Amino acid sequence: MSTIKNELLIYNSLSGQKEKFEPIHENKVGMYVCGPTLYSEPHMGNMRTFINFDMIYRCLLKLNYQVKYVRNITDAGHITNSAGDEVDSIGKVARLEQVQSLEIVYKYNVKFQELQRIYNMLPPNIEPTATGHIQEQIETIEKIIENGFAYVVNGSVYFDVKAYSEKFEYGTLSGRVVDELSEETRVLNAQDEKRFFADFALWKKANPEDMQIWRSPWGDGNPGWHIECTAMSTKYLGAHFDIHGGGMDLKFPHHEDEIAQNCGSVGCNPAKYWMHANMLNVNGQKMSKSLGNFFLPKEIVEGTTTVFEKAYSPNIIRFSMMQAHYRSTLDFTADSLDAAEKGFSRLSEAVEKLAVLKTSTTSSISIPDIIQSFYKAMSDDFNAPILLAKIFDAVKYINSVNDGKATITKQDLELLSVEINSFVTDVLGLTMEKLNSDAKLAPVMDLVLDIRKSARENKDWTTSDKIRDGLAIAGIEVKDGKEGTTWN
RNA sequence: GGUCUCAUGGCCGAGUGGCUAGGCACCGGUCUGCAAAACCGUCUACAACAGUUCGAAUCUGUUUGAGACCUCCA
Which helix (H) or strand (E) holds A194? Predict the structure, then answer.
Protein backbone atom coordinates (compact mmCIF):
# COMPACT_ATOMS: atom_id res chain seq x y z
CA MET A 1 0.00 0.00 0.00
CA SER A 2 1.62 3.29 0.94
CA THR A 3 0.61 5.18 -2.12
CA ILE A 4 1.93 8.21 -0.32
CA LYS A 5 5.67 7.90 0.01
CA ASN A 6 6.78 9.96 2.93
CA GLU A 7 9.60 12.35 2.63
CA LEU A 8 12.54 10.67 4.31
CA LEU A 9 14.44 12.81 6.78
CA ILE A 10 17.93 11.89 7.92
CA TYR A 11 19.94 13.55 10.64
CA ASN A 12 23.22 14.46 9.03
CA SER A 13 26.15 14.69 11.42
CA LEU A 14 27.82 17.06 8.97
CA SER A 15 25.19 19.75 9.39
CA GLY A 16 23.92 18.73 12.80
CA GLN A 17 20.32 18.68 11.65
CA LYS A 18 17.70 16.61 9.95
CA GLU A 19 17.80 16.94 6.18
CA LYS A 20 15.55 15.75 3.42
CA PHE A 21 17.07 12.64 1.96
CA GLU A 22 17.80 13.03 -1.71
CA PRO A 23 19.81 10.14 -3.09
CA ILE A 24 22.57 10.98 -5.52
CA HIS A 25 21.10 8.55 -8.05
CA GLU A 26 17.35 8.33 -8.04
CA ASN A 27 15.95 5.44 -6.02
CA LYS A 28 19.42 4.09 -5.33
CA VAL A 29 21.31 4.31 -2.08
CA GLY A 30 24.97 3.62 -1.49
CA MET A 31 25.68 3.02 2.19
CA TYR A 32 28.99 2.31 3.87
CA VAL A 33 29.23 1.34 7.52
CA CYS A 34 32.41 0.80 9.49
CA GLY A 35 32.51 -2.82 10.53
CA PRO A 36 34.40 -4.74 13.19
CA THR A 37 38.10 -5.19 13.72
CA LEU A 38 38.76 -8.87 14.05
CA TYR A 39 41.14 -8.99 16.96
CA SER A 40 38.45 -9.80 19.49
CA GLU A 41 34.82 -10.77 19.66
CA PRO A 42 32.51 -7.79 19.16
CA HIS A 43 30.89 -6.81 22.44
CA MET A 44 27.30 -5.79 23.03
CA GLY A 45 28.02 -2.14 22.33
CA ASN A 46 29.45 -2.96 18.91
CA MET A 47 26.34 -4.94 18.21
CA ARG A 48 24.06 -2.01 18.95
CA THR A 49 25.69 -0.02 16.18
CA PHE A 50 25.45 -2.88 13.72
CA ILE A 51 21.87 -3.64 14.69
CA ASN A 52 20.89 0.01 14.31
CA PHE A 53 22.37 0.20 10.85
CA ASP A 54 20.70 -3.08 10.04
CA MET A 55 17.40 -1.42 10.95
CA ILE A 56 18.29 1.59 8.80
CA TYR A 57 19.15 -0.71 5.91
CA ARG A 58 15.84 -2.49 6.37
CA CYS A 59 13.95 0.82 6.40
CA LEU A 60 15.57 1.88 3.16
CA LEU A 61 14.59 -1.44 1.60
CA LYS A 62 11.05 -1.03 2.90
CA LEU A 63 10.93 2.36 1.20
CA ASN A 64 11.79 0.57 -2.03
CA TYR A 65 15.24 2.00 -2.42
CA GLN A 66 17.73 -0.12 -4.24
CA VAL A 67 20.43 -0.23 -1.60
CA LYS A 68 24.05 -1.20 -1.93
CA TYR A 69 25.20 -1.78 1.61
CA VAL A 70 28.91 -2.16 2.18
CA ARG A 71 30.37 -2.96 5.57
CA ASN A 72 34.07 -3.57 5.84
CA ILE A 73 35.89 -6.14 7.87
CA THR A 74 39.14 -4.94 9.33
CA ASP A 75 41.50 -7.85 9.23
CA ALA A 76 44.72 -5.89 9.00
CA GLY A 77 46.32 -4.58 12.13
CA HIS A 78 45.95 -0.96 13.03
CA ILE A 79 48.32 1.40 14.66
CA THR A 80 47.47 1.19 18.31
CA ASN A 81 49.00 4.29 19.78
CA SER A 82 49.64 7.86 18.81
CA ALA A 83 53.36 7.47 18.46
CA GLY A 84 52.70 4.82 15.84
CA ASP A 85 55.26 2.43 17.22
CA GLU A 86 52.75 -0.36 17.79
CA VAL A 87 51.39 -1.04 14.38
CA ASP A 88 49.78 -4.42 14.30
CA SER A 89 46.90 -4.83 16.76
CA ILE A 90 45.89 -8.18 15.34
CA GLY A 91 49.47 -9.39 15.42
CA LYS A 92 49.65 -8.41 19.06
CA VAL A 93 46.79 -10.75 19.89
CA ALA A 94 48.25 -13.43 17.65
CA ARG A 95 51.60 -13.24 19.46
CA LEU A 96 49.83 -13.51 22.80
CA GLU A 97 47.95 -16.58 21.67
CA GLN A 98 50.98 -17.88 19.80
CA VAL A 99 49.15 -18.36 16.53
CA GLN A 100 49.28 -16.68 13.15
CA SER A 101 47.41 -13.46 12.45
CA LEU A 102 45.20 -15.18 9.96
CA GLU A 103 44.02 -17.61 12.61
CA ILE A 104 42.91 -14.73 14.79
CA VAL A 105 41.12 -13.12 11.89
CA TYR A 106 39.37 -16.33 10.89
CA LYS A 107 38.38 -17.16 14.42
CA TYR A 108 36.71 -13.84 15.05
CA ASN A 109 35.20 -13.63 11.62
CA VAL A 110 33.40 -16.91 12.21
CA LYS A 111 32.15 -15.57 15.53
CA PHE A 112 31.01 -12.34 13.97
CA GLN A 113 29.12 -14.08 11.19
CA GLU A 114 27.45 -16.24 13.81
CA LEU A 115 26.41 -13.15 15.75
CA GLN A 116 24.89 -11.69 12.60
CA ARG A 117 22.70 -14.75 12.31
CA ILE A 118 21.83 -14.87 15.99
CA TYR A 119 20.78 -11.24 16.01
CA ASN A 120 18.96 -11.55 12.71
CA MET A 121 21.00 -9.00 10.83
CA LEU A 122 20.72 -8.92 7.07
CA PRO A 123 24.08 -9.51 5.47
CA PRO A 124 25.47 -6.47 3.68
CA ASN A 125 25.80 -6.70 -0.07
CA ILE A 126 29.55 -6.63 0.22
CA GLU A 127 31.81 -7.24 3.20
CA PRO A 128 35.22 -6.32 1.85
CA THR A 129 38.32 -7.03 3.87
CA ALA A 130 41.25 -4.70 4.38
CA THR A 131 43.82 -7.34 3.50
CA GLY A 132 42.03 -8.02 0.23
CA HIS A 133 42.45 -4.38 -0.78
CA ILE A 134 46.05 -3.51 -0.03
CA GLN A 135 46.65 -2.57 -3.65
CA GLU A 136 43.70 -0.17 -3.65
CA GLN A 137 44.96 1.38 -0.44
CA ILE A 138 48.41 1.88 -1.90
CA GLU A 139 46.88 3.48 -4.97
CA THR A 140 44.81 5.82 -2.84
CA ILE A 141 47.91 6.84 -0.90
CA GLU A 142 49.77 7.46 -4.14
CA LYS A 143 47.00 9.78 -5.28
CA ILE A 144 47.14 11.72 -2.03
CA ILE A 145 50.90 12.10 -2.40
CA GLU A 146 50.50 13.23 -6.00
CA ASN A 147 48.00 15.83 -4.89
CA GLY A 148 50.49 17.14 -2.37
CA PHE A 149 48.67 16.17 0.79
CA ALA A 150 51.06 13.53 2.06
CA TYR A 151 54.78 13.05 2.49
CA VAL A 152 57.12 10.11 2.76
CA VAL A 153 59.50 9.76 5.69
CA ASN A 154 61.77 6.83 6.19
CA GLY A 155 59.49 4.21 4.66
CA SER A 156 56.30 5.63 6.13
CA VAL A 157 53.73 7.97 4.62
CA TYR A 158 51.90 10.67 6.56
CA PHE A 159 48.93 12.79 5.72
CA ASP A 160 49.91 16.45 5.67
CA VAL A 161 47.16 18.20 7.61
CA LYS A 162 48.72 21.66 7.23
CA ALA A 163 49.04 21.41 3.46
CA TYR A 164 45.53 19.98 3.31
CA SER A 165 44.15 22.84 5.38
CA GLU A 166 45.23 25.34 2.78
CA LYS A 167 42.82 23.88 0.27
CA PHE A 168 40.22 22.08 2.36
CA GLU A 169 38.90 22.45 5.84
CA TYR A 170 40.06 19.83 8.31
CA GLY A 171 37.69 19.06 11.16
CA THR A 172 34.32 19.83 9.57
CA LEU A 173 32.65 16.71 10.90
CA SER A 174 33.88 16.74 14.47
CA GLY A 175 33.91 20.52 14.78
CA ARG A 176 37.62 20.62 15.40
CA VAL A 177 39.81 23.40 14.10
CA VAL A 178 43.46 22.86 13.29
CA ASP A 179 44.44 26.07 15.08
CA GLU A 180 42.70 24.85 18.18
CA LEU A 181 44.32 21.50 17.89
CA SER A 182 47.71 23.11 17.72
CA GLU A 183 47.10 24.88 21.02
CA GLU A 184 46.77 21.59 22.77
CA THR A 185 49.46 20.70 25.19
CA ARG A 186 50.53 17.61 23.32
CA VAL A 187 54.08 17.76 22.08
CA LEU A 188 55.63 15.97 19.19
CA ASN A 189 57.60 12.99 20.27
CA ALA A 190 61.31 13.53 19.65
CA GLN A 191 61.50 10.46 17.42
CA ASP A 192 58.21 11.31 15.76
CA GLU A 193 58.50 11.45 12.01
CA LYS A 194 55.44 13.65 11.65
CA ARG A 195 55.86 17.27 10.64
CA PHE A 196 52.77 18.31 12.54
CA PHE A 197 51.22 16.45 15.42
CA ALA A 198 47.78 16.28 13.73
CA ASP A 199 49.29 14.45 10.76
CA PHE A 200 48.34 10.81 10.66
CA ALA A 201 49.89 7.73 9.11
CA LEU A 202 48.72 6.44 5.74
CA TRP A 203 51.41 3.81 5.56
CA LYS A 204 53.68 2.65 8.31
CA LYS A 205 57.07 1.06 7.84
CA ALA A 206 57.16 -2.51 9.11
CA ASN A 207 58.47 -3.36 12.53
CA PRO A 208 60.58 -6.50 12.86
CA GLU A 209 57.93 -8.21 15.00
CA ASP A 210 55.02 -7.49 12.64
CA MET A 211 53.28 -10.66 11.61
CA GLN A 212 51.54 -9.19 8.59
CA ILE A 213 53.65 -7.19 6.18
CA TRP A 214 52.91 -5.89 2.68
CA ARG A 215 55.10 -4.56 -0.08
CA SER A 216 54.64 -0.98 -1.19
CA PRO A 217 56.46 1.67 -3.22
CA TRP A 218 57.79 2.96 0.11
CA GLY A 219 59.03 -0.39 1.33
CA ASP A 220 57.51 -3.17 3.42
CA GLY A 221 54.89 -2.05 5.87
CA ASN A 222 51.27 -1.78 6.98
CA PRO A 223 48.41 0.44 5.90
CA GLY A 224 47.44 3.24 8.26
CA TRP A 225 44.41 3.48 10.49
CA HIS A 226 41.81 4.92 8.17
CA ILE A 227 42.90 4.31 4.62
CA GLU A 228 41.09 1.01 4.13
CA CYS A 229 37.68 2.64 4.44
CA THR A 230 38.57 5.29 1.90
CA ALA A 231 39.97 2.78 -0.57
CA MET A 232 37.10 0.31 -0.24
CA SER A 233 34.23 2.78 -0.13
CA THR A 234 35.59 4.43 -3.26
CA LYS A 235 36.02 1.12 -5.00
CA TYR A 236 32.54 -0.21 -4.28
CA LEU A 237 30.43 2.93 -3.95
CA GLY A 238 32.36 5.57 -5.83
CA ALA A 239 34.08 8.76 -4.77
CA HIS A 240 30.86 10.25 -3.48
CA PHE A 241 28.01 8.12 -2.16
CA ASP A 242 24.90 8.61 -0.06
CA ILE A 243 25.32 7.40 3.49
CA HIS A 244 28.34 6.74 5.65
CA GLY A 245 27.64 5.31 9.07
CA GLY A 246 29.41 4.15 12.16
CA GLY A 247 29.54 4.49 15.90
CA MET A 248 29.59 7.91 17.51
CA ASP A 249 33.09 7.32 18.81
CA LEU A 250 34.41 6.91 15.28
CA LYS A 251 33.58 10.50 14.44
CA PHE A 252 37.02 11.61 15.44
CA PRO A 253 39.55 10.83 14.30
CA HIS A 254 38.47 7.96 12.06
CA HIS A 255 35.72 9.61 10.03
CA GLU A 256 37.36 12.99 10.07
CA ASP A 257 40.45 11.46 8.54
CA GLU A 258 38.41 9.52 6.03
CA ILE A 259 36.98 12.81 4.83
CA ALA A 260 40.47 14.26 4.58
CA GLN A 261 41.74 11.23 2.67
CA ASN A 262 38.83 11.28 0.28
CA CYS A 263 39.15 15.01 -0.36
CA GLY A 264 42.88 14.56 -0.65
CA SER A 265 42.61 11.77 -3.20
CA VAL A 266 39.47 12.45 -5.23
CA GLY A 267 38.56 15.97 -4.11
CA CYS A 268 35.29 15.49 -2.27
CA ASN A 269 33.70 14.32 0.94
CA PRO A 270 32.97 10.63 0.49
CA ALA A 271 29.41 10.81 1.78
CA LYS A 272 26.47 13.13 1.43
CA TYR A 273 24.98 12.03 4.75
CA TRP A 274 27.05 11.00 7.74
CA MET A 275 25.18 9.03 10.37
CA HIS A 276 26.34 8.14 13.84
CA ALA A 277 24.78 5.62 16.17
CA ASN A 278 25.02 6.26 19.87
CA MET A 279 26.56 4.19 22.62
CA LEU A 280 25.16 1.46 24.81
CA ASN A 281 25.47 1.79 28.57
CA VAL A 282 25.03 -0.98 31.06
CA ASN A 283 23.66 -0.12 34.48
CA GLY A 284 24.17 3.54 33.75
CA GLN A 285 27.80 3.34 32.73
CA LYS A 286 29.79 2.77 29.62
CA MET A 287 30.67 -0.86 29.22
CA SER A 288 34.09 -1.62 30.49
CA LYS A 289 35.95 -4.56 31.85
CA SER A 290 37.11 -2.66 34.89
CA LEU A 291 33.57 -1.70 35.87
CA GLY A 292 32.45 -5.30 35.69
CA ASN A 293 29.56 -4.53 33.35
CA PHE A 294 31.21 -5.95 30.26
CA PHE A 295 29.63 -8.83 28.41
CA LEU A 296 29.51 -10.40 24.98
CA PRO A 297 26.45 -10.58 22.71
CA LYS A 298 26.45 -14.33 22.99
CA GLU A 299 26.71 -14.41 26.76
CA ILE A 300 23.53 -12.44 27.30
CA VAL A 301 21.64 -14.75 24.98
CA GLU A 302 23.00 -17.84 26.69
CA GLY A 303 22.63 -16.41 30.17
CA THR A 304 26.30 -16.90 30.92
CA THR A 305 27.16 -13.31 31.79
CA THR A 306 27.44 -12.40 35.43
CA VAL A 307 26.04 -8.95 34.70
CA PHE A 308 22.49 -10.29 34.39
CA GLU A 309 20.88 -13.10 36.28
CA LYS A 310 19.00 -14.57 33.37
CA ALA A 311 19.22 -15.00 29.63
CA TYR A 312 17.49 -12.68 27.20
CA SER A 313 16.70 -13.80 23.67
CA PRO A 314 18.10 -11.92 20.67
CA ASN A 315 14.58 -10.72 19.95
CA ILE A 316 14.32 -9.15 23.38
CA ILE A 317 17.67 -7.46 22.93
CA ARG A 318 16.65 -6.16 19.55
CA PHE A 319 13.25 -5.07 20.78
CA SER A 320 14.89 -3.23 23.62
CA MET A 321 17.23 -1.48 21.22
CA MET A 322 14.39 -0.56 18.91
CA GLN A 323 12.61 1.15 21.78
CA ALA A 324 15.37 3.74 21.85
CA HIS A 325 16.33 6.06 19.03
CA TYR A 326 19.61 5.21 17.33
CA ARG A 327 21.04 8.65 18.14
CA SER A 328 20.37 8.35 21.87
CA THR A 329 22.39 6.48 24.39
CA LEU A 330 20.60 3.43 25.69
CA ASP A 331 20.91 1.93 29.15
CA PHE A 332 20.64 -1.81 29.62
CA THR A 333 19.50 -2.80 33.08
CA ALA A 334 17.80 -5.92 34.36
CA ASP A 335 14.62 -3.87 34.76
CA SER A 336 14.73 -2.46 31.24
CA LEU A 337 15.37 -5.87 29.71
CA ASP A 338 12.61 -7.49 31.78
CA ALA A 339 10.28 -4.76 30.55
CA ALA A 340 11.36 -5.43 26.98
CA GLU A 341 10.75 -9.12 27.45
CA LYS A 342 7.15 -8.53 28.48
CA GLY A 343 6.55 -5.89 25.86
CA PHE A 344 7.87 -8.13 23.13
CA SER A 345 5.73 -10.98 24.33
CA ARG A 346 2.63 -8.77 24.20
CA LEU A 347 3.53 -7.74 20.68
CA SER A 348 4.12 -11.33 19.56
CA GLU A 349 0.80 -12.50 20.90
CA ALA A 350 -1.07 -9.72 19.15
CA VAL A 351 0.66 -10.54 15.87
CA GLU A 352 -0.41 -14.16 16.30
CA LYS A 353 -3.98 -13.09 16.93
CA LEU A 354 -4.06 -11.36 13.56
CA ALA A 355 -4.37 -14.74 11.91
CA VAL A 356 -7.51 -15.72 13.80
CA LEU A 357 -9.34 -12.41 14.10
CA LYS A 358 -13.03 -12.35 13.22
CA THR A 359 -13.98 -9.87 10.54
CA SER A 360 -17.02 -7.63 10.20
CA THR A 361 -18.61 -5.38 7.62
CA THR A 362 -17.02 -2.26 9.03
CA SER A 363 -13.80 -1.24 10.71
CA SER A 364 -13.92 0.80 13.90
CA ILE A 365 -10.86 2.78 12.97
CA SER A 366 -9.00 3.72 9.82
CA ILE A 367 -6.44 1.07 9.02
CA PRO A 368 -4.74 3.11 6.28
CA ASP A 369 -4.20 5.88 8.85
CA ILE A 370 -2.50 3.44 11.20
CA ILE A 371 -0.26 2.16 8.46
CA GLN A 372 0.53 5.67 7.34
CA SER A 373 1.69 6.40 10.89
CA PHE A 374 4.15 3.51 10.62
CA TYR A 375 5.68 4.97 7.48
CA LYS A 376 5.74 8.42 8.98
CA ALA A 377 7.68 7.26 12.05
CA MET A 378 10.13 5.31 9.95
CA SER A 379 10.68 8.23 7.60
CA ASP A 380 11.46 10.65 10.39
CA ASP A 381 15.12 9.81 10.81
CA PHE A 382 14.37 6.13 11.32
CA ASN A 383 12.40 6.66 14.51
CA ALA A 384 12.01 3.08 15.66
CA PRO A 385 10.61 3.94 19.11
CA ILE A 386 7.76 5.93 17.59
CA LEU A 387 7.18 3.15 15.09
CA LEU A 388 6.87 0.70 17.98
CA ALA A 389 4.52 3.04 19.83
CA LYS A 390 2.30 3.17 16.74
CA ILE A 391 2.47 -0.58 16.43
CA PHE A 392 1.35 -0.86 20.04
CA ASP A 393 -1.62 1.36 19.22
CA ALA A 394 -2.47 -1.27 16.66
CA VAL A 395 -1.89 -4.02 19.24
CA LYS A 396 -4.50 -2.45 21.47
CA TYR A 397 -6.90 -2.32 18.55
CA ILE A 398 -6.22 -5.95 17.66
CA ASN A 399 -6.98 -6.96 21.23
CA SER A 400 -10.21 -4.97 21.18
CA VAL A 401 -11.31 -6.72 18.02
CA ASN A 402 -10.38 -10.01 19.59
CA ASP A 403 -12.52 -9.16 22.63
CA GLY A 404 -15.41 -8.17 20.37
CA LYS A 405 -15.18 -4.54 21.41
CA ALA A 406 -14.07 -3.29 18.00
CA THR A 407 -14.51 -4.44 14.44
CA ILE A 408 -12.42 -4.84 11.31
CA THR A 409 -13.29 -5.71 7.72
CA LYS A 410 -11.72 -8.60 5.91
CA GLN A 411 -9.93 -6.27 3.55
CA ASP A 412 -8.59 -4.10 6.37
CA LEU A 413 -7.48 -7.14 8.31
CA GLU A 414 -5.47 -8.37 5.36
CA LEU A 415 -3.89 -5.00 4.94
CA LEU A 416 -3.10 -4.64 8.64
CA SER A 417 -1.78 -8.14 8.85
CA VAL A 418 0.58 -7.74 5.92
CA GLU A 419 1.91 -4.39 7.07
CA ILE A 420 2.31 -5.20 10.75
CA ASN A 421 4.15 -8.38 9.91
CA SER A 422 6.29 -6.47 7.47
CA PHE A 423 7.16 -3.68 9.88
CA VAL A 424 7.82 -6.01 12.78
CA THR A 425 9.87 -8.59 10.93
CA ASP A 426 11.22 -6.87 7.81
CA VAL A 427 11.89 -3.42 9.26
CA LEU A 428 12.56 -3.97 12.95
CA GLY A 429 14.10 -7.35 12.30
CA LEU A 430 12.18 -9.12 15.06
CA THR A 431 11.26 -12.73 14.54
CA MET A 432 7.96 -13.97 15.81
CA GLU A 433 8.61 -16.85 18.12
CA LYS A 434 5.97 -19.41 17.36
CA LEU A 435 4.11 -20.65 20.38
CA ASN A 436 3.09 -24.30 20.48
CA SER A 437 5.65 -24.99 17.81
CA ASP A 438 6.84 -28.38 19.00
CA ALA A 439 5.16 -30.87 16.69
CA LYS A 440 5.78 -33.89 18.90
CA LEU A 441 4.77 -32.23 22.11
CA ALA A 442 1.52 -30.74 20.83
CA PRO A 443 -0.55 -33.95 20.72
CA VAL A 444 0.76 -34.92 24.16
CA MET A 445 -0.28 -31.57 25.51
CA ASP A 446 -3.70 -31.91 23.93
CA LEU A 447 -4.11 -35.17 25.76
CA VAL A 448 -2.87 -33.87 29.09
CA LEU A 449 -4.99 -30.76 28.92
CA ASP A 450 -8.01 -32.84 27.97
CA ILE A 451 -7.55 -34.91 31.12
CA ARG A 452 -7.20 -31.75 33.13
CA LYS A 453 -10.33 -30.36 31.55
CA SER A 454 -12.32 -33.41 32.63
CA ALA A 455 -10.94 -33.11 36.13
CA ARG A 456 -11.96 -29.48 36.28
CA GLU A 457 -15.42 -30.27 35.03
CA ASN A 458 -15.70 -32.77 37.86
CA LYS A 459 -14.38 -30.15 40.25
CA ASP A 460 -11.45 -32.45 40.95
CA TRP A 461 -9.15 -29.55 41.79
CA THR A 462 -6.49 -31.81 43.26
CA THR A 463 -5.92 -33.53 39.93
CA SER A 464 -6.20 -30.39 37.83
CA ASP A 465 -3.77 -28.50 40.02
CA LYS A 466 -1.40 -31.43 40.08
CA ILE A 467 -1.26 -31.34 36.29
CA ARG A 468 -0.86 -27.59 36.22
CA ASP A 469 1.93 -27.62 38.83
CA GLY A 470 3.65 -30.57 37.22
CA LEU A 471 3.73 -28.86 33.87
CA ALA A 472 5.02 -25.69 35.49
CA ILE A 473 7.98 -27.63 36.83
CA ALA A 474 8.61 -28.86 33.29
CA GLY A 475 8.66 -25.25 32.17
CA ILE A 476 5.25 -25.31 30.53
CA GLU A 477 2.84 -22.63 31.54
CA VAL A 478 -0.87 -23.38 31.43
CA LYS A 479 -3.17 -20.49 30.66
CA ASP A 480 -6.87 -20.85 31.32
CA GLY A 481 -8.52 -18.43 28.93
CA LYS A 482 -12.11 -17.64 28.16
CA GLU A 483 -12.14 -19.94 25.15
CA GLY A 484 -10.20 -22.85 26.50
CA THR A 485 -6.76 -23.56 27.85
CA THR A 486 -3.51 -22.77 26.07
CA TRP A 487 0.08 -23.41 27.01
CA ASN A 488 3.60 -22.39 26.23
C1' G B 1 42.38 22.02 30.21
C1' G B 2 39.75 22.09 25.11
C1' U B 3 35.30 20.61 22.04
C1' C B 4 30.47 18.84 22.50
C1' U B 5 26.03 16.34 24.15
C1' C B 6 22.36 15.34 27.61
C1' A B 7 19.26 16.13 32.14
C1' U B 8 11.59 13.59 31.15
C1' G B 9 6.86 10.21 35.93
C1' G B 10 8.99 4.03 40.21
C1' C B 11 12.15 2.02 35.66
C1' C B 12 13.39 2.14 30.14
C1' G B 13 12.52 5.67 26.82
C1' A B 14 9.87 9.25 22.44
C1' G B 15 8.26 13.97 21.33
C1' U B 16 6.54 18.91 21.19
C1' G B 17 6.03 26.61 22.25
C1' G B 18 -0.66 25.45 23.78
C1' C B 19 -3.98 19.15 21.61
C1' U B 20 0.73 16.81 27.09
C1' A B 21 4.10 8.94 22.93
C1' G B 22 4.89 3.82 23.91
C1' G B 23 6.69 -0.36 26.89
C1' C B 24 7.30 -2.19 32.00
C1' A B 25 5.94 -1.78 37.22
C1' C B 26 2.05 -0.10 40.73
C1' C B 27 -3.16 0.31 41.66
C1' G B 28 -8.42 -0.77 40.14
C1' G B 29 -11.47 -3.93 37.07
C1' U B 30 -13.05 -8.15 33.63
C1' C B 31 -12.27 -13.31 33.44
C1' U B 32 -11.40 -17.59 36.84
C1' G B 33 -12.87 -23.21 41.41
C1' C B 34 -8.36 -20.82 43.08
C1' A B 35 -4.24 -18.91 40.87
C1' A B 36 -1.57 -17.56 36.76
C1' A B 37 -2.04 -15.64 32.06
C1' A B 38 -4.66 -12.43 29.02
C1' C B 39 -7.41 -8.04 28.28
C1' C B 40 -9.40 -3.14 29.84
C1' G B 41 -8.92 1.27 32.86
C1' U B 42 -6.06 4.49 35.98
C1' C B 43 -1.57 7.08 37.52
C1' U B 44 -0.08 13.42 34.19
C1' A B 45 6.48 13.75 34.51
C1' C B 46 9.88 16.84 31.91
C1' A B 47 17.05 19.06 37.14
C1' A B 48 17.09 24.21 39.78
C1' C B 49 16.64 29.45 39.30
C1' A B 50 15.70 33.72 36.30
C1' G B 51 13.97 35.70 31.61
C1' U B 52 11.14 35.94 26.66
C1' U B 53 5.78 34.82 25.62
C1' C B 54 -1.24 35.44 25.98
C1' G B 55 0.95 30.60 27.12
C1' A B 56 7.23 26.76 28.08
C1' A B 57 8.72 20.86 30.28
C1' U B 58 9.63 22.61 24.84
C1' C B 59 13.07 29.23 23.32
C1' U B 60 17.24 32.34 26.05
C1' G B 61 20.66 32.90 30.21
C1' U B 62 22.82 31.17 34.78
C1' U B 63 23.59 27.13 38.26
C1' U B 64 23.99 22.06 39.45
C1' G B 65 24.58 17.10 37.79
C1' A B 66 25.77 13.15 34.12
C1' G B 67 28.23 11.54 29.85
C1' A B 68 31.13 11.57 25.20
C1' C B 69 35.35 12.96 22.29
C1' C B 70 40.36 15.19 22.33
C1' U B 71 44.67 8.25 22.65
C1' C B 72 42.51 2.32 20.06
C1' C B 73 37.29 2.30 20.59
C1' A B 74 30.66 0.77 17.87
Answer: none
Q: Which nucleotide is nearest to A479 (CA to C1')?
A: B37
User: Which positions on chain B have an atom < 7 Å from some protein CB?
Assistant: 1-4, 10-15, 21-25, 31-41, 67-74
Same domain, A261 and A312: no
Closest nucleotide to A225 by C1' from CA? B72
Any idea what the CATH number is for the domain that residue A90 is in?
Answer: 3.40.50.620
Residue A436 within a domain:
no
- Whether A92 and A189 share a structural domain: yes
Q: Angle at the Cα of A45 (from A43 to A47), degrees rounded to 5? A: 75
Q: How many CB atoms neighbour CB A289 within 10 A?
A: 8
The predicted-structure confidence for A67-122, as pLDDT tens digits, reads as follows 999 999 998 876 555 445 555 778 888 888 888 888 888 999 999 999 999 999 99
Instruction: Tell me what ipTM this predicted complex has.
Output: 0.93
A393: closest CA among A411, A410, A409, A377?
A377
Residue A479 sits in which domain range? 441-487
Number of domains chain A contains: 3
Nucleotide lying nearest to A83, CA to C1' measure: B71
CB A354 within 8 A of CB A420: yes
